[in-house]
Design a protein that fits this description.
- This protein is of the alpha+beta class.
- The protein contains 8 helices and 20 strands.
- Strands 6-7-8-3-9-10 form a 6-stranded mixed β-sheet, sandwiched between helices. A 5-stranded antiparallel β-sheet has the order 13-12-11-14-20. A 5-stranded antiparallel β-sheet has the order 15-19-16-17-18, with no helix packed on it.
Amino acid sequence: MNQPLPHSPHSPQPQHSPDAHPHTDISLVFDQVTKKYGRVVAVDNVSFSIPKGSLVTLVGPSGCGKTTTLRMIAGLESVTHGRILLNGEDVTRQSAIERNVSMVFQSYALFPHMTVLENVAYGLTVSGMPKREAEHRAIEGLSLVGLADYGPRLPSELSGGQQQRVAVARALVLEPQVLLLDEPLSNLDTKLRRHVRDEIRGIQLKLNLTAVYVTHDQEEAMAVSDQIIVMNKQKIAQHGSPRELFETPADEFVADFICNANLVSGEARRNESGRSDCVIGGVPITIPDRRARLGDVRVAVRPDAIRLFGEPEKHPLSGEIVYASFLGTEMQYTLKTPLGELFVRSSEVTAPHPLGSKVGIGFADHGLAIVGTLA
């Protein structure tokens, strides 16, 4: 059971059906779920399961269905076809108030006329918990997010990061089976985003919470997730750990979206023990490929897997630097090459290649993946 705060007999409790399986290790199941608005398909036959105590992130471009999926878990959107199960119980037709889930919104949704303490205690008091007990649990929730002394303040007296932590505390005191977070950091600046995301992940791990997190930020997803579900065109493009998605993207879309990879053509000439001997622009390279694809292939090349050299005439593949940018810890280049335009990230900042120069091009022994074949 996920009980981040001391249990109270007045806490909202889930309703279990006779065929529920409360001891299952799976907290949430999406079973062939489709959502339609008239003829428009918002989510198309999506299935996945989330183990208890894990944090799963939904990522994808705008309009791919990730937020609609989150809202169906919350009960804020109805399901057209399929089932949703929470701890083994079919909640597909239950309303939002009947489900033991809590949601943290992008806009925080704090009541401006209430104090921080009153905001955190609000969900408990409307569920019938005595005011004194609700305030006690709200204080515990604020302590959990590092805001124990901020109870008397109004939301307008807090920074954006503090307001977001109040929203998280308000969700946690309800002891949800699943915590839902919808773009929770999008209103924060870059440095604060990193700090608050680490805090949210730390709380989730400490309390062994099951959480579903929606973001458009790939780095954010990689940093906080046990598993990532990449959505595209209302379907799941790939589901796996951050490392799996980063190192072995399933197709060109995932490679581009997760890794910002360069997509180039190559020739796979031999495959033994799941490793393919390829030639890319005249450069021989060995790439892991369990599907044993041969012939003309599409290869995803991460920007950090491209090596640049002086004396381009000594290398089978060369290009011209058409853009160069210094970012402190790395150089970023755009190259014009026979393979097309390549984006490169290099940690060599002491002697950068000048704009307009010709360079030889090679590839590292990592950061490449075959993502398709050419007809």
